[in-house]
Amino acid sequence: MEGLARLWRRVAGYAAHPDPLTSAANWIALVVAWNQPFYPLYLWAAVGADKIAPSFLTFMSTPIFMAVPAVAKRHALAARVLLPLTGIANEIVSTKAFGVGSGVEIFLVPCALIGAALFRPELWRKMGDDGLRRAAYRGG
Predict the structure, then answer these.
(1) What global pTM score does this model have?
(2) Dist. CA 3–CA 1, nearest whole Å
(3) Residues 82, 86, 87, 88: is their CA dihedral positive or negative?
(4) Mind giving me the DSSP string for 44-77?
(5) How far apart are CA 36 and CA 33, in angstroms?
């Protein structure tokens, strides 16, 4: 049990960040990465072993999800941007692999919601103000 506690402390240290939004992004990325190996097992149970080969393409994003906390140590904003972008890229690959009929593109909704939640309201206001100014400048 001591080994498991030591491992957990190391993971918690890897995900730790003084900014709560970045810390949340780190933990979300690690949870997604830890769950990715179970996705082919879920598909195997749901549709059978002969149809799970495309699911292994989703493993391409695992190292990127695992790297989010490392990126956060250098640049918190980059890590918060990297998480939803990696999720969106993973869903695009999954949609291409399984087809539109599979419905996996519905997981773009949580990617967008996580992306929206990882940025402070003042940043959204600033982006909106900048967008309005640019639109007024080009329109006038």
Answers:
(1) 0.80
(2) 5
(3) positive
(4) HHHH-GGG-GGGGGGGGGHHHHHHHHHHHHH-HH
(5) 5
